[in-house]
Amino acid sequence: SERTLVLIKPDGVERGLVGEVIGRIERKGLKLVEMDLRRVDRKLAEQHYAEHDGKPFFESLLEFITSGPVVAAVVEGPHAISAFRQLAGGTDPVGKAAPGSLRGDYGLEVQYNLVHGSDSVESAERELKLWFPELQA
Ligand code: GTP
Ligand code: MG
């Protein structure tokens, strides 16, 4: 079994898609271990997206992710990391995400792509520590 960090980004919360995202996670058979609604400060946003520092969209990404409340969740199950990435769909909701995926069904623009999921075991470990420091591995 594996754990991954899932975020419902400010656009997903604002648009009332929390129930939809959580419902799909549950119906897939994944388990919610922790979940809360929270505001993201600049420091956490910078740490979370550190790999994108220096890219042209970095500043705009930080502004977006700190613009309103997000849902942060720890999701567990067999292959949880890739299972959630599959539910989310490719980064670009129109160019890459397949219909049937969350981004494919509900997104239009690459920045406003509704959800985040850790992309590897190493990322999941790093991100879970960052967002849920009180949780033990
Ligand atoms: P996350 O789960 O959020 O990490 O998405 P991802 O792993 O599918 O994509 P990636 O880590 O490459 O990019 C992180 C986030 O930056 C994306 O989810 C988008 O919100 C945003 N992003 C990525 N590429 C672009 C871009 O070209 N332009 C803009 N404006 N935003 C981008
Ligand atoms: Mg990513």
TrEMBL record:
Keyword Metal-binding: yes
Main location: cytoplasm
Pfam family, one: NDK
PROSITE patterns for the chain: NDPK, NDPK_LIKE
Catalytic residues in the record: 116
Sequence similarity: Belongs to the NDK family.
PANTHER family attached to this UniProt entry: NUCLEOSIDE DIPHOSPHATE KINASE (PTHR11349)
Classification via NCBIfam families: PRK00668.1
Stated role: Major role in the synthesis of nucleoside triphosphates other than ATP. The ATP gamma phosphate is transferred to the NDP beta phosphate via a ping-pong mechanism, using a phosphorylated active-site intermediate.
Listed name of the protein: Nucleoside diphosphate kinase
